[in-house]
Amino acid sequence: MATRDHMVQSIDENTPLMSDSNGTPHYKDKRPWVKWPARFVHLTWLTLKSNPVNFLLVFVPLGILSGALDWSPIATFVLNFLAIVPLASLLSFATEELSTKLGQTLGGLLNATFGNAVELIVSIVALTQGKIRIVQSSMLGSILSNTLLVLGCCFLAGGIHRDEQEFNPTVASTMSSLMAVASASLIIPATLSAVMTNKDDVEGKIMQLSRGTSVILLILYVLYLFFQLKTHAQFFDEPSSEEDGGEPHAEEPQILGPWAAAVALIIITVGVSVCAEYLVGSIEFITETGAVSETFIGLILIPIVGNAAEHVTAVVVSYKNKMDLALGVALGSSMQIALFVTPFLVILGWIIGQPMTLKFETFETVVFFISVLIVNYLLQDGKSNYLEGCMCLGTYTIIAVAFYVYPDDTKSPSLSVGPA
C-alpha cells in the first residue's frame, strides 16, 4: 500500500541517524559492522510502526516483571493482559510477512498454525496446570468471538455505506457446514453424559469418546486444508478487487525477509508464552475475589485479546468490500479452533495425563449450537447488511452477559431416562 511505501521512504530520507553524510542509509553500508546493526534497528522500527497498538509493548516488560517479582495478582493479570494485545498483533504481522514467500499451500498452513497461536499457548499453559475450565472456556470463547463478534463487526462496517454486500456462498456454506459438524462433536458427549444411568462409568466413556472424536476432527481438518489449498483452490482464491475507480490495489511491499520473519515469530512466541504463564497463574486469585468467574475470563476476555489483530484485519477488509477475505479471517479462525486446536488439546491432555475432554457444560453447548445456527441462517443467501451485523453483535452481547452471571460451580443436570 502507498502508506507503507511512504513509511519506508520517509525513514530513509528523513532520519539522519539512519544515514551517512551522503544520505545513504546505514543498513545499505558495505561494512558489515555498520550494516547489520543498522539493518536490525531499521527493520525493528518498521515492524513497530506496522500497527498503532504496538505502543502497548511497554506493558510486556512490566508484565514479566510483575510475575517474576510476585507483584499483586491483579496487577500481574492486568499488565500481562495488556501485553498480549501487541504481541498478538506482531505475531499476525510476522506470519503474514513470512507466508508471502512460501506460496499458497505452505502460507495457508502457516496462517493456520499461527493464526490462533495466542489462544493455543494460553490453553497449553492452562492445560499443564490442570485448569481444564480455562481451556474449554478459551476454546469456546474464541469460536463465539469470531463467529458473532468479528462477523457482526464485519457486516456492520461493510454495510454502513452499502445496501448489501455479496460473498462466495459456496465457501461460506462449506465453512458453516464444518462448524455444524464441530457443534455436533460437543453436543454428542454432553448428551451421552446426560443419558447414561451408570454415573460411575461416565467419565471413562466420555474420555474414550472425546479422544476418538478428536482424531476424527483432526482428520477432517487435514481434509479441509487439502480441499481448500489443492483440489478446490479456485473457490477460495480471492478475486482481484477493483475499487475506487476500477484500479486494482497494488501489492503491499514486504518489510521482513523470510529469515527475519522467522526469527521474529520465535521471539514473539516466547514472549507470548511468558506473559501467558503469568496471566494464567494470576487467574485463580482474580476468581477467588468473586468479581468475575473463570468461565467469563476464558470465554470473553482472553479470546478478545488473543484475536485483537484478526478482529481489526477482518473489519478493515470488510469496510473495503472484500467480504470473502473477511469471512476467511472470521470463520476460518473459528474452524481452526473447532477442528484443530480443541481436538489437539484433547490429544495433548491424553499424552500428559490431563483429563481434557469434549464434554462441555450443557449451557455452553447449547450456546455454541445456537450461535452456529444463527450464523448459518445469515450466510445462506450469500449476502450481508448492517442489520445482520447488529443481530450478531446483539447475540454476542446477550451471551457475554449470560456468562458474566454464570457461576463456575454450575453443573449439567442429569436427565431422567425411564418411565415417568
Question: Can you walk through the features of this model?
Answer:
This protein has 420 residues and is mostly helical. Helix content is 72%, strand content 2%. Strands 1-4 form a two-stranded antiparallel ribbon. A two-stranded antiparallel ribbon has the order 2-3. A hairpin with a 3-residue loop joins strand 2 (242-243) and strand 3 (247-248). The longest helix has 31 residues, at 258-288. The chain starts with a helix and ends in a 16-residue tail after the last helix. 41% of the residues are buried. Mean pLDDT is 78; it is low at 1-17, 240-250 and 412-420.
Itemize the secondary structure elements and their pairings.
Layout lengths: L1 H13 L17 H17 L10 H10 L4 H27 L3 H12 L2 H12 L3 H28 L5 E2 L2 H27 L6 H30 L1 H4 L5 E2 L3 E2 L9 H31 L5 H13 L1 H12 L3 H30 L9 H18 L3 E2 L1 H19 L16
Antiparallel strand pairs: 1-4, 2-3
Short description:
The protein has 420 residues and is mainly α.
Keywords:
single chain; 420 residues; mainly alpha; two-stranded antiparallel ribbon; two-stranded antiparallel sheet; 16 helices; 4 strands; 72% helix; globular; disordered N terminus; disordered C terminus
